[in-house]
Specification:
With 343 residues, the chain is α/β, with parallel strands linked by helices. 47% of the residues lie in helices and 9% in strands. About 9% of the residues have low confidence. The structure holds adenosine-5'-triphosphate and magnesium ion (MG).
């Protein structure tokens, strides 16, 4: 089935344009974006639009395996290369000859394996474990990651030389909350798919109120989360009322985005806490809940403010915030903080 990249936002328009251009040139490419934004879909589309379509498409998940296993999976091994290697095994690099080698979650690859990958890319050949022969492979390497690799470079977690090798081109996919105009088209696309899969005669009618809610929600799990919500309504028939439990937060996406801008421009903003023009949903309000919401938001604002002011120098930020490094990293992840000028 051909991949279908849905969206009307300028970000998706740019992604489509890049796909077209990169598919013609077959430059090594990295696709960046948060979880569920469509990185794998973009990689598959690159493959389909290229002359390699029909050739092998081989995926390696760099985060799923311990180092040595990943190495043998990528480069292959000879019989007897290690205990349990009962027969020779072609690595994925070799399998991807004349096709695409998709390195998923490349940001999670260890430094030592990064060095091996770099050599393989530089020489166009490599030696399988326990082997004496060199193997050549003409694979088009496309990688994906949800890491900010530029940050990882600075932190010494990713090799600079490998970075330049694999990212001759790069594609950034924005999170859904930054392109809310894509939500309605995605909903109608997937609604139609799920309804027809079910051969249901009843089309799903999403009323305006519900659509507004879906568009305002911040979708931390991006398109995958949207698919799950729609599947639950359509396939499991949970009904539209259940949307409230699936996306429980009275949403303030716009406000959050505006607040972020204010935080970066205006140091005094930090003193603010309170309503600040937020719309409150009176049908679903308790003081306790509201207090928690505001506290969470203030925490997010304070941390992102400090990170922006320190140029995302995390060590400096921990000193200012007086928290441990570990706590800060957990918060960054939990609150999904990213540099404002990241993309
Ligand atoms: N623009 C889009 N149009 C249509 N479907 C999309 C779009 N973006 C994502 N999807 C669908 O959403 C699901 C999740 O996308 P995908 O697996 O490509 O995300 P990902 O970025 O690789 O996520 P992860 O980081 O979790 O691996 C897939 O079923 C994909 O087809
Ligand atoms: Mg993926």
């Amino acid at each position: 089935m051909e991949s279908n990249l849905i969206g009307v936002s300028t970000n998706i328009a740019r992604v489509r344009d890049l796909i077209q251009r990169i598919a013609d040139t077959e430059l090594n490419t990295v696709v960046f974006g948060d979880t569920g934004v469509g990185k794998e879909l973009v990689v598959k589309t690159l493959y389909e639009k290229s002359d390699r379509n029909g050739g092998p498409f081989v995926k390696v998940n760099c985060a799923a395996l311990p180092d040595t296993l990943l190495e043998s999976e990528m480069f292959g091994y000879e019989r007897g290369a290690f205990t349990g290697a009962q027969r020779k095994m072609r690595g994925k690099f070799e399998q991807a000859n004349r096709g695409v080698l998709f390195l998923d979650e490349i940001g999670d690859m260890s430094l030592s394996l990064q060095a091996k990958l770099l050599h393989a890319l530089q020489d166009g050949e490599f030696i399988p474990l326990g082997s004496e022969r060199t193997v050549k492979s003409n694979a088009w390497v496309i990688a994906a990651t949800n890491h900010d690799l530029a940050e990882d470079l600075k932190a010494g977690k990713f090799r600079e030389d490998l970075y330049y090798r694999i990212s001759m081109a790069s594609i950034y996919i924005d999170p859904l909350r930054k392109r809310p105009e894509d939500i309605a088209p995605l909903i109608s696309y997937y609604t139609e798919q799920y309804v027809s899969q079910l051969k249901a005669s009843q089309p799903l009618n999403i009323n305006k109120n519900l659509m507004d809610k879906l568009i305002a929600y911040h979708w931390p799990g991006n398109v995958r989360e949207l698919q799950n919500v729609l599947r639950r309504i359509i396939v499991l028939g949970e009904g539209e009322e259940s949307i409230d439990t699936m996306i429980p937060i009275t949403n303030h996406r716009q406000n959050i985005d505006d607040d972020k801008k204010q935080v970066s421009n205006n140091p005094k903003f930090i003193k603010f806490s309170g309503l600040n023009g937020q719309q409150l949903d009176l049908s679903d309000l308790s003081l306790k809940k509201f207090k928690k919401q505001v506290a969470d938001q203030v925490e997010k604002d304070v941390i992102s403010y400090v990170l922006e002011k320190t140029g995302w120098n995390r060590t400096r930020a921990t000193q200012i915030l007086k928290v441990s490094y570990k706590t800060l990293l957990t918060k960054i992840k939990e609150l999904e903080l990213t540099p404002l000028n990241n993309f």
